[in-house]
Design goal:
mainly alpha, two-stranded antiparallel sheet
Length: about 290
Amino acid sequence: MKKFTTNRLSCIYFALIVIMIFCTVTPLYSQQPVSDSSFHPYHVNYWVTGSILTVGLTTNLIGITTVLGKKDVTLAEIQSLDRSVINNLDYWVLKLDPTKASTNAVYSDYVLGASLVMPGLLFFDKNIKHDWFDILLMYTETMSITTNIFEWSFLGPTFQNRLRPLTYYEELTYDEKKSGHNRNSFYSGHVASAAASTFFMAKVYSDYHPEIGNNKYFLYAAAMVPPLVLGYFRIKALKHFTSDVMVGIGIGALCGILIPEFHRIKYENITLGLYSSLEATGVAIKWQPKF
């Protein structure tokens, strides 16, 4: 399973790197002519976004090596686990059927794959299709930032070493529990990626169709479904506790919404200058976003 996970991640990152390279060498043909009167809610600076992707994808590759390369869980650690310290929200995960864990892990991979390609449906919308390059670029940026938060923030497995639920099951052998990858319970990167993808889709569609008004919240409600289903299978696979999934959904949803929102800001509304007073002298940044 670890080999499958590594190969899958390698394919994803290879695709993202190809997109990034394409971005940096492609002329700005995707920009619409001045006479174009169609609605374009986003303002993508290719040099800034390309730089973010260059750094982000590099740190992604470094980070995933760190996350997947943790030392094995020792037998002493397994024997010292105490179920009584698990909170009520998470405790039910220790009462599942371990014989079905592998099957549910496969299901979770299918749901993740479907969630990651789901934003492709946006291109069936004629307005969004005209800005396909910008949308693809923003999506790559969103997924890269989501993965970097997972890999490098203090909440992620680089700094957290919570053992997966499967390590608590006496029915499983030590060989099934000892992988260092089982130190990566908190939080769920699978769920965070799925949530970032589906909420990105809801956010972009609602920004291109402001006429739907408050009905956009139905889109966000629908965007919750894939990561919830994925989280269910990840829990049943004994990969995560409930709290791991909840945090993953929250972080992924925020990334899926905030990254596109950032690109709605017109850069000309940011001014830079010097200031001086009796107390100090420094640089002043003035930001007047227009949404």
